[in-house]
Amino acid sequence: MSDRKIRTAILVSGGGSNLEAILQAVEDGRLPRIEVVLVLSSRRDAYALTRAKNHNVASVVVSPKDFANDELFQDTVLKELQLARVDLVCLAGYLRKLSPRLIHAYPKRILNIHPGLLPTYGGAGMYGHHVHSTVLAAGEKESGCSVHLVDEEFDHGPVLAEKRVAVLPGDTAESLAARILEQEHKLYPEVIHQFSETLEIEK
Ligand code: GRF
Question: What angle do CA 147, 153, 157 make, to 5 degrees?
Fold first, then answer.
């Protein structure tokens, strides 16, 4: 196994609190094999970009709005990852579906965190508050968050770990989201650590 660090890209579209948790874990020495070499945002106004800057991590915006079609957009995302010589890709609130070409370029090397339990509360349209409202409407006693490998279907690849969170009486989508997000910040760095310990990279 190579003893160099795993060159990691974090893909974001929003606030980037999971990005923050990962960068914090790297700085605290909890992710000894991980080096975050790139933050790629699909939105120019994502606060995650400020977080990257605060941690002196390189960032780039690749916005679908700047491209004539999805293929050109996706090709540019892939090109940025290749330019940065990335080994591992972590999606953290990234709201675009990845192209098959990109997924095939990083086989079993793309992770995602989802704010719900899979497979029941995943799939197309199940993101953000949609997940939490659906969980509440179903009268579930538990929800949670899941880290999974990314394949070509939304929220579909093998689940690596999940953390369950109780649904409390009086919960709203917002209160449940906040309680789950706290757990995401613990779970994602832990799973990235475990995953990184077994990942073989070329020298
Ligand atoms: C998180 O709830 C994550 O599970 C989902 O998108 C949200 C991103 O939040 N995929 P943040 O940008 O990390 O704060």
Answer: 35
